[in-house]
Write a sequence for this structure.
C-alpha cells in the first residue's frame, strides 16, 4: 500500500511533475504492485546476507594514467543550452 | 536475393569467406528489407553500407548486425526508446558493439525497444510499438522487441539485445527465434544505457543456436571500462552436439505449475512437455527439482530493478544532453518539467517504485529484503546444479498477446517475466529456443545453467533445436 | 604560543563542542573514476569525458592511486583500515552532480577510527568531487530569471572526507588542529591542501553545553570557511551566537549556516534538496576494495616521518621542551630548517630557541628557507652566543642583519665590532673607570645593595658599545670592591 501523500513525496524526491490524474493512477497502480511484492517481507530471512553483486570480482582498479579528454565542442555538442563555454542552467536560487 | 536472406548469419559469413557470397550484396539485400520495415522494428537504418575496412576477411565477414537502440554508437542515434534522448548521438561506442565491429560485423540499424528496456511488449517505446511478424495484431515481447521482430522477419540476420529480467529471452520466445542471456559479467556493459546495473546483460538474438554461439564468441571479454566484467574462462565453441546422453535436466515445480503468478498457458505447457519427451529420447534424464524461492523472484526483481533504475535515470535532467523543458520555477521547475515530459508512464512508474523502495524508512523492508531474497535464489540454483546439469522451463508463460491487451494492468505485464527473472537475479546464463507453435504462435523453451556454462548450454540447446526442427521461415515472408 | 593541549574553554559557563568535516582533494594525476587529468584554473569544460560528464551508458573505474593515497592518510591518522570497503550512491539532484548521485562511501568506509594529536578521527572515506557552478547573471532567455553555468573540469576529482569526533573545544583549537592536519597531509604529499584553491575544505559542527555537562547540545553546521582565519572567526562567531540565544532563553535550531568573512555574519544556507533523503545504496557499477598486503606495504613504505612522531623525537633525542618540539615539528618548514641547521658543535636546545623565538619573531609565518638566513648561519650564531663570543643582545643585532642581508655571523660580528669584550685585562680598566665615575653607587654596593650596580654596568656597556658580558662585569666590580 502507498497513499497519495507518499506518492507526492516520492515524486518530489524523483523530480517528477505528476498531474492530479497521474497521482491518482500512480497511487492505485503502485499499491497493486506493492501488495504483490510485499509478500517477500513475509519470508524469514533472519541472518541471510544481502546480495548486491553476483560477480565475485574485487579491486577492479585503474592505473592513474591520463587519457584524452573530449574537446569542449564535443562535450557541449548535445547540451540543450550551451553558453559561456559551459552548460547553462536556471540558477538553483532562481 | 531471397536465398541470401534464408542463409543463417554463420552460413552467410562462411559464404563470404568462401567467396560465394558478396558481402556488399548481402548487406544491401538486408538494408533494402530493413529500409522497408513496416513492423516498427528499427529506429534508425544505415543510409548505406558502412565502409567494410576489410570486414569480410574477419570472422563476422561484414554480415549486417542489428543493434538495440540503447547501445551507444558514435554519431548514430542512441535513444533507449525514450523521448528524453530523442535524436541523441553519443561521442563514443559501446565496448561490445566495438568488439563486434572489430570482428567484422557491420551495423545495419538500431532496433526499437521498450523505453529504457522497461517492458515486456515493446509498447512502451517513445517511437511506437513493434508488431510481431507472426501476427501483426500482437506484440513481439520486450524489451528487445525490435531486435527480435527484425531477426524473425529477416530484416537483419542477427541482432544485439539486452536482458535484465527476460528482455532477450521473452521476445525471442514470442517471435520464434533464439535468445541468449549470458552470465552476468561475461559481456561488458560499457556503453549500454543502464536500466538495472546489477542485472543488465547484453546478448545475441539469432535465428539459430550456432549463430548465437558465433556472435557471443565475439562479445565476451573483460573490459577495463567495466569493473564488473570478467575474462571469459574459455573460448566459445560453435555447438555440434546432436544428442543429450548423460545430461541431467531439472524441471523446477515452482516455475512449471499453473498457479498464482505462474499461470502457464496450457498450449505453452503442452509444447514444453513435448520437448521434455524429445530430450529424453535424445538421452537426457528429466526429473523434477525445487527452486523454493523462485516464486518470490518476481517480487525481489520488481524492487531491485526499479531501485537501481531510479538512480540510473537521475542523470536525465536536461542539463548536458537530451530533452529540456523550461519550467516556471527556475531549476526545480526545469527538472520536473523535463522529466515529466521526457519519460513515459512505465518509466515514471518504475522510478516512483524504486525511489520509494530506497527511501528512508522503507529501505530495509523493501530493497534490503529483496537483496536477501536474491541470495536465497542463488542458493536455490547452486543446490539444483548439484543434482542437475541444467534447469529447464517454458520461457514465457504465454504466447504473444494482443497489442494493448495488458497495457492497462502493469502487474499482469510484469508476470510475463515469471520464468525468466530468477536466472537474472542469480546472474546465470539462460537461453530460449523456439519450441514449436501454439495456435500458430511461437513458444519458447528455456535452458539455464551455472555461471560460465555457456558452451555446454549452447551444446544442449543445439541438440534440442535439431530435434525440434522449428521452421521460422514463415515469419520472413 | 598556543598549543593543542593547553587550550582553555572560551567561556566558563558554556563549553563548546566542535567536530570538523574536512574534504581533501587528492593530488592524483587523473580523476577518481576516469582518465581525465586534474586541473586548476583551466578554461571551462576542457577536462571532461563521457564518464565524468555522466553520459548515458558510461561506468566508473576506481583510480588505484586514489586508494593508495587514502590508505596513506588512514595510516597517518592511525585509523583502522577496512579489509573490505565498498562504494555507495548518494542520490540527489543538483547541476554540479552529473549522474544525479555522488559515488561515495557510506557504511563501510576505507578507514575507521583513528586520531591526530588530541582529536579523535571518526572515519575517512573516499568520494568524487562535484563540478563547479558559476553564476552567470541575467540569462535573458527565461525572462527575469538568473542562470548559472556548469564547468565539469573539477567534477570527479578524487576526494577524501575526514570526519572527526566532537573533540575540539575552542575556535583556536579548531584552527590549530586543522593546521596540524594540513602539515600532515602536505608531508604525505597526497594533496596541495590549499584552502583558497579549495583543495582543503572544512565544515564545522558546533554546539555548546553547560561546562562539565556530558550531554550534547543542538548542533549547527558551518560551511564556507575557506581559510584558517575564517574557520576560527566563524566558529567563534557561532559559539557566541549560540551563547546569546541560550542566555536569552531561546532555542538553537539545527541548521546549516554560511559564514560571510566580510560581514562576519552567519546566514542559513538554502538547502540543496528540500526533502533530504539521499537514498544511499551499494553502487552496483563498482566492486569492493579488498586490501592486499601489496597495497598495505606500498602505503606504509610511502609514509614520511609525521609531525607527531617528529615532535616526540625532538623531545626524546634533542631534549626540546614539549611546546618547542611541537612548534617546530608541526610546521614542516621550521622542522626542515631546524634539521638543516643542526650539526656538531650546535646545542639543539638553544638553536631551537633562536629559531622558534627570535627568527620566527622576525619573519612571522614565512618559510625560513625563503629568508636570507642560512640554516648554517643561524647555527653559527647560536654557537657564538654559547661560546660567549657575543652576548645575546649583540647576537640579536647580528640576527637583524642576517634577516636583512644574510651573510656569515662571525664576519658581521667582526665587521660591526660586536664581539664580546672578553678577558678581565681588557675590561678591568673600564670597570675601574666606572667605579670612579659612580663612587656613590660603589658605596651602596659595598653597603650590601647589589641592585645599585645598574649605573656601573650601564657605564661599562656604554664604553664598550654593549659588547661587554654582564656576568663578567659584575664579577670584576665585586673583585675591585673586595667583596
Ligand atoms: Mg562528502
Ligand atoms: Zn573524465
Amino acid at each position: 500500500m502507498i497513499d497519495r501523500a507518499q506518492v507526492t513525496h516520492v515524486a518530489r524526491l524523483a523530480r517528477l511533475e505528476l498531474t492530479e490524474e497521474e497521482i491518482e493512477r500512480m497511487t492505485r497502480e503502485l499499491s497493486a504492485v506493492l501488495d504483490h511484492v510485499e509478500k517477500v517481507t513475509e519470508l524469514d530471512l533472519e541472518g541471510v546476507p544481502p546480495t548486491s553483486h553476483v560477480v565475485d570480482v574485487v579491486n577492479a582498479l585503474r592505473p592513474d594514467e591520463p587519457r584524452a579528454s573530449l574537446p569542449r565542442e564535443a562535450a557541449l555538442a548535445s547540451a540543450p543550452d550551451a553558453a559561456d563555454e559551459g552548460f547553462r542552467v536556471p540558477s538553483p536560487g532562481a | 536475393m531471397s536465398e541470401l536472406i534464408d542463409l543463417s548469419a554463420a552460413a552467410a559469413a562462411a559464404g563470404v569467406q568462401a567467396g560465394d557470397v558478396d558481402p556488399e550484396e548481402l548487406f544491401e539485400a538486408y538494408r533494402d528489407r530493413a529500409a522497408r520495415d513496416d513492423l516498427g522494428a528499427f529506429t534508425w537504418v544505415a543510409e548505406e553500407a558502412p565502409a567494410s575496412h576489410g570486414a569480410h576477411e574477419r570472422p563476422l565477414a561484414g554480415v549486417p548486425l542489428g543493434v538495440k537502440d540503447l547501445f551507444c554508437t558514435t554519431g548514430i542515434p542512441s535513444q533507449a526508446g525514450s523521448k528524453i534522448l530523442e535524436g541523441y548521438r553519443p561521442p563514443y561506442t559501446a565496448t561490445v558493439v566495438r568488439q563486434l565491429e572489430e570482428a567484422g560485423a557491420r551495423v545495419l540499424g538500431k532496433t526499437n525497444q521498450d523505453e529504457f528496456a522497461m517492458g515486456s511488449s515493446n509498447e512502451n517505446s517513445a517511437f511506437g510499438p513493434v508488431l510481431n511478424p507472426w501476427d501483426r495484431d500482437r506484440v513481439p515481447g520486450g524489451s528487445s522487441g525490435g531486435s527480435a521482430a527484425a531477426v524473425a522477419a529477416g530484416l537483419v540476420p542477427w541482432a544485439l539485445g539486452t536482458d535484465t529480467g527476460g528482455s532477450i529471452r521473452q521476445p525471442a520466445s514470442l517471435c520464434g527465434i533464439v535468445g541468449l542471456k549470458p552470465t552476468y559479467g561475461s559481456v561488458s556493459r560499457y556503453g549500454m544505457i543502464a536500466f538495472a546495473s546489477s542485472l543488465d546483460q547484453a546478448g545475441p538474438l539469432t535465428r539459430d543456436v550456432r549463430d548465437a554461439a558465433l556472435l557471443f564468441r565475439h562479445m565476451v571479454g573483460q573490459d577495463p571500462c567495466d569493473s564488473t566484467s570478467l575474462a571469459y574462462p574459455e573460448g566459445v565453441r560453435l555447438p555440434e552436439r546432436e544428442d543429450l546422453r548423460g545430461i541431467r535436466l531439472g524441471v523446477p515445480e515452482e516455475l512449471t505449475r499453473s498457479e498464482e503468478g505462474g499461470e502457464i498457458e496450457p498450449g505453452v505447457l503442452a509444447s514444453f512437455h513435448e520437448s521434455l519427451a524429445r530430450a529424453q529420447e535424445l538421452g537426457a534424464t528429466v526429473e523434477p527439482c525445487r527452486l523454493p524461492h523462485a516464486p518470490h523472484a518476481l517480487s525481489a526483481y520488481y524492487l531491485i530493478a526499479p531501485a537501481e533504475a531510479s538512480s540510473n535515470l537521475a542523470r536525465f535532467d536536461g542539463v548536458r544532453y537530451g530533452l529540456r523543458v523550461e519550467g516556471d520555477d527556475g531549476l526545480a521547475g526545469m527538472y520536473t518539467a523535463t522529466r515529466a515530459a521526457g519519460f513515459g508512464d512505465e518509466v515514471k512508474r518504475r522510478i516512483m517504485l524504486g525511489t520509494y523502495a530506497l527511501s528512508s524508512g522503507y529501505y530495509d523492508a523493501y530493497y534490503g529484503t529483496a537483496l536477501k531474497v536474491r541470495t536465497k535464489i542463488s542458493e536455490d540454483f547452486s543446490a539444483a546444479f548439484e543434482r542437475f546439469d541444467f534447469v529447464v522451463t517454458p520461457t514465457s508463460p504465454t504466447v504473444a498477446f494482443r497489442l494493448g491487451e495488458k497495457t492497462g494492468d502493469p502487474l499482469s505485464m510484469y508476470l510475463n517475466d515469471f520464468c525468466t527473472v530468477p536466472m537474472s537475479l542469480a546472474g546465470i546464463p539462460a537461453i530460449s529456443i523456439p519450441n514449436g507453435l501454439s495456435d500458430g504462435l511461437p513458444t519458447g523453451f528455456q535452458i539455464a545453467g551455472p555461471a560460465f556454462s555457456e558452451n555446454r548450454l549452447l551444446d544442449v540447446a543445439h541438440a534440442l533445436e535439431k530435434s525440434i526442427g522449428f521452421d521460422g521461415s514463415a515469419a520472413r515472408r | 604560543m598556543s598549543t593543542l593541549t593547553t587550550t582553555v574553554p572560551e567561556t566558563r559557563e558554556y563549553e563548546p563542542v566542535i567536530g570538523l568535516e574536512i574534504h581533501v582533494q587528492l593530488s592524483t594525476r587523473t580523476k577518481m573514476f576516469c582518465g581525465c587529468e586534474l586541473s586548476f584554473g583551466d578554461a571551462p569544460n576542457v577536462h571532461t569525458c563521457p564518464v565524468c560528464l555522466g553520459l548515458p551508458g558510461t561506468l566508473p573505474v576506481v583510480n588505484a592511486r586514489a586508494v593508495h593515497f587514502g590508505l596513506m592518510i588512514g595510516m597517518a591518522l592511525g585509523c583502522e583500515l577496512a579489509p573490505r570497503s565498498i562504494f555507495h550512491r548518494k542520490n540527489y539532484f543538483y547541476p554540479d552532480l552529473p549522474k544525479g548521485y555522488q559515488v561515495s562511501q557510506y557504511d563501510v568506509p576505507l578507514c575507521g577510527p583513528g586520531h591526530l594529536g588530541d582529536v579523535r578521527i571518526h572515519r575517512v572515506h573516499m568520494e568524487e568531487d562535484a563540478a563547479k557552478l558559476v553564476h552567470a547573471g541575467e540569462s535573458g532567455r527565461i525572462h527575469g530569471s538568473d542562470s548559472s553555468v556548469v564547468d565539469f573540469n573539477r567534477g570527479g576529482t578524487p576526494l577524501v572526507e575526514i570526519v572527526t569526533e566532537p573533540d575540539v573545544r575552542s575556535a583556536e583549537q579548531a584552527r590549530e588542529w586543522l593546521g596540524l592536519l594540513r602539515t600532515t597531509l602536505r608531508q604525505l604529499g597526497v594533496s596541495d591542501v590549499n584552502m583558497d584553491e579549495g583543495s582543503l575544505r572544512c565544515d564545522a559542527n558546533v554546539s555548546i553545553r553547560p561546562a562539565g555537562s556530558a550531554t550534547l547540545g543542538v548542533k549547527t553546521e558551518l560551511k564556507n570557511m575557506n581559510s584558517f582565519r575564517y574557520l576560527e572567526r566563524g566558529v567563534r562567531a557561532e559559539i557566541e551566537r549560540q551563547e546569546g540565544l541560550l542566555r536569552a532563553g531561546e532555542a538553537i535550531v539545527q541548521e546549516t549556516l554560511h559564514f560571510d568573512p566580510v560581514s562576519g555574519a552567519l546566514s542559513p544556507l538554502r538547502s540543496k534538496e528540500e526533502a533530504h533523503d539521499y537514498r544511499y545504496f551499494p553502487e552496483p557499477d563498482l566492486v569492493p576494495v579488498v586490501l592486499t598486503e601489496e597495497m598495505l606495504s606500498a602505503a606504509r613504505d610511502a609514509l614520511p616521518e609525521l609531525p607527531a612522531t617528529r615532535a616526540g623525537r625532538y623531545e626524546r633525542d634533542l631534549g626540546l621542551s614539549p611546546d618547542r618540539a611541537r612548534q617546530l615539528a608541526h610546521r614542516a618548514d621550521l622542522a626542515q630548517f631546524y634539521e638543516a641547521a643542526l650539526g656538531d658543535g650546535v646545542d639543539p636546545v638553544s638553536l631551537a630557541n633562536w629559531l622558534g623565538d627570535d627568527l620566527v619573531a622576525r619573519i612571522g609565518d614565512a618559510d625560513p628557507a625563503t629568508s636570507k638566513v642560512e640554516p648554517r648561519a643561524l647555527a653559527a650564531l647560536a654557537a657564538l652566543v654559547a661560546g660567549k663570543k657575543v652576548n645575546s643582545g649583540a647576537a640579536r643585532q647580528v640576527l637583524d642583519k642576517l634577516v636583512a642581508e644574510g651573510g656569515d655571523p662571525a664576519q658581521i660580528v667582526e665587521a660591526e665590532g660586536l664581539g664580546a669584550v672578553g678577558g678581565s685585562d681588557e675590561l678591568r680598566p673600564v670597570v675601574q673607570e666606572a667605579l670612579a665615575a659612580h663612587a656613590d653607587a660603589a658605596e651602596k654596593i659595598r653597603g650590601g645593595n647589589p641592585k645599585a650596580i645598574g649605573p656601573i654596568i650601564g657605564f661599562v656597556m656604554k664604553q664598550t658599545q654593549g659588547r661587554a658580558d654582564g656576568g663578567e662585569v659584575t664579577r670584576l666590580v665585586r673583585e675591585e670592591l673586595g667583596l
Notes: Chain A has a mean pLDDT of 94. The radius of gyration of chain A is 22 Å. The beta strands of chain A are 61-62, 82-83, 86-90.
